[in-house]
Amino acid sequence: MFSIYLIILFVALVAWKKTRQFAIYFLPWFLFGIIYDSMRLYPNYKVNSIDVEHLYEAEKALFGIVAKSAQELAAVADHTSIMIPGEWFKVHNCAFADFMAGCFYLCWVPVPIAFALYLYLTKQKDWFNRFSWAFLLVNVIGFIGYYIYPAAPPWYAMNYGFTPVLNTPGNVAGLGRWDAMTGLSVFHGLYGKNANVFAAVPSLHAAYMLLTTIYAVLSHKRWYTIGLFGFICLGIWWTAVYSGHHYIIDVCLGILTTIIGVLLMEEGGIKNLLPNAPIKKIPSN
């Protein structure tokens, strides 16, 4: 399991004096990877039953689109005349939107990690700690949500109907068009290793870049950095729905998860519990 390699790497970094401080500071990021991968051991559908149809129907009730053409009617999973947005985008898509969607989704984790590295390397230890532990906190809240309410993504209803099938493999859904366009198998590789496909609520895709944007604002980063992060954030929200990976409801709950995590960190006193030791360079021997 990937989590075992992360544990070994963390222990090795802690054991070596020159990398010990780095490992300790990046502990929340190691914990994130370990916890996420460990969910394979006891999937959320062993705790609560999987919802496929109710979430689909709720999305349709709130954001439904009337199907007009034969192609649109054929795309509706429950064979009615009302489409969810993901079904509408399955019919109405274009190469430019497909390309942008893939680019946005590739920023999901790398940009938050890059921002954390920037804060660490520029010795902004207070903001680094607050952002890193808030990132872990948001993930823990999201993971708890996964186990409270196991839910299938839109692509599942569109491809498999409304009966949960355990051990269903991950699916690239609309992002497969990006792979086909570029000749790369990036998303096929990523979603083939998905720990659990019944973890659509809340959407942590919607959470990560919002969290990064919020901490860019709180730490008074330059306007173009905040603007870029905000643009990527909006792009990921749109891609989540456009690609069929999330319902709009999922995205809204992901946004709420982020807000709760930030409030707990900044207003709930958690930031006062974080270590205050400065980031220092360890002299070479």
Secondary-structure blueprint of this entry?
Layout: H1 2-15, H2 17-25, H3 27-38, H4 53-63, E1 65-66, H5 70-75, E2 82-83, H6 85-91, H7 95-105, H8 110-121, H9 125-148, H10 154-160, H11 176-182, H12 186-191, H13 204-218, H14 223-242, H15 248-266
Antiparallel strand pairs: 1-2
Spatial order of the strands forming the largest sheet: 1-2
Round the mean pLDDT to the nearest integer and report it: 92
**What general outline do the C-alpha atoms trace?**
globular
Kindly name the structural category: mainly alpha
Give your account of this protein's structure:
- With 285 residues, this protein is mainly α.
- It has two domains: 38 residues, no CATH class; 225 residues.
- The chain has 15 helices and two strands.
- It has a two-stranded antiparallel sheet with strand order 1-2.
- Helix 7 crosses helix 11 and helix 7 packs across helix 14.
- The C terminus is likely disordered.
Q: In a nutshell, what does this entry contain?
A:
The chain has 285 residues and is mainly α. It has 15 helices and two strands.
List keywords for this structure.
15 helices; single chain; 285 residues; mainly alpha; 2 domains
